[in-house]
Amino acid sequence: MSSFEVQILGCGSATPTLNHHPTSQVLRIREKLFMVDCGEGTQLQMRKYKVSFSRLSHIFISHLHGDHCFGLIGLISTLDLLGRTGDIFIHAEPSLKPILQPQIDFFAAHLAFQVHFEDFNPRASAVIYDDRSLKVTSIPLVHRIACAGFLFEEKQTPAHIIPEMIAFHQIPVKHIADIKAGADYVTPEGKTIPNSHLTRPSEPAKRYAYCSDTAYNEKIIPLVEGVDLLFHESTFMEQDALKAKKTFHSTTKQAATIARKAQVKELMLGHYSARYNQLEPLLLEAKAIFPNTFLANEGVMKKL
């Protein structure tokens, strides 16, 4: 199985600070590059962390609050300046196109590539992207406006052939595809060679769930259950739980509770309120409930 990596470009919330950039992440999955949210200045963060502009083709926008989408026109303009010709696909709720298209028409009227708007309903869970190696499913969240998270699921690769066993049993090439798919091999004499003698299992497919922004919502648990990594917003500490409830955000303890109940492998906190200059207290609160927790931070790269 080839690499599956999540890199943080920004993990702050709406109010700008000197410590954190607005929300954006990039996922590298089997040599493809995907972006999740595009806060203001995302293209600068891509430059800073040496993220390939040319490999990016799909952008997933969770919702239309500025700290998650203000960077789109800047990124599109930068791609134009870099001479891009390959199309860009933006997956978002239908309201984005009438907002962003006039900006494109004004600021980047002569693009050599097309910007395609792939609409989805953020209030329903559905497959919104599917290719040979990856499936992306929307996760309805609870926020002040329509908002969705995303589940990125790698597709399982076939088993690995053991070349020396294929040679030993003199198996013709025409049978290799079936063996990789799980079939046993029957010799001309009628002897069955078990598939387990001819192949090694490939690495398990990886699963990553992104949930920002949202109030505490146990309905997402079946959708994120058992994922290798869960990014769950933790805008507030528990002492500010009333503020979290009022603004439809989550606390550190609530994020950790979701992770524990969903039995995920790891939890990454992020989308921090500007009121916190130190993040260690947020981490300690979460680890008290779900020990396998770590903090998102600009430049952090996590390999699943």
- Compressed to H and E, one letter per element, the order equals EEEHEHHEHEEEEEHHEEHEEHEHHEHEE
Major β-sheet annotation = 7 strands, mixed
General form: globular
Within the CATH hierarchy, at the fold level, what is the topology of the largest domain? Metallo-beta-lactamase, Chain A
Radius of gyration: 22 Å
What value does the average pLDDT take?
Answer: 95
CATH class identity of the largest domain: Alpha Beta
Count of separate structural domains: 2
CATH architecture of the largest domain: 4-Layer Sandwich
Quantity of strands, as a count: 18
Q: Main sheet: which strands, in order across? A: 6-5-4-3-2-1-18
Structure explained in plain terms:
The chain is α/β, with parallel strands linked by helices. It folds into two domains: 4-157 and 203-303, Metallo-beta-lactamase, Chain A (4-Layer Sandwich); 160-200, no CATH class. The chain is 26% helix and 27% strand. The protein has eleven helices and 18 strands. It has helices spanning 42-48, 66-69, 72-81, 96-107, 163-168, 176-180, 195-198, 221-224, 241-247, 252-262, 280-287; strands spanning 4-10, 24-29, 32-38, 56-60, 88-92, 115-119, 127-130, 134-140, 148-154, 160-161, 185-186, 192-193, 199-200, 207-211, 229-233, 267-270, 293-295, 301-303. The strands form four sheets. It has a seven-stranded mixed β-sheet with strand order 6-5-4-3-2-1-18. The chain has a seven-stranded mixed β-sheet with strand order 7-8-9-14-15-16-17, covered by helices on one side. Helix 1 links the parallel strand 3 (32-38) and strand 4. Helix 3 (72-81) runs parallel beside helix 4 and helix 10 (252-262) runs parallel beside helix 11. The longest helix has 12 residues, at 96-107. It is globular and about 75 Å long.
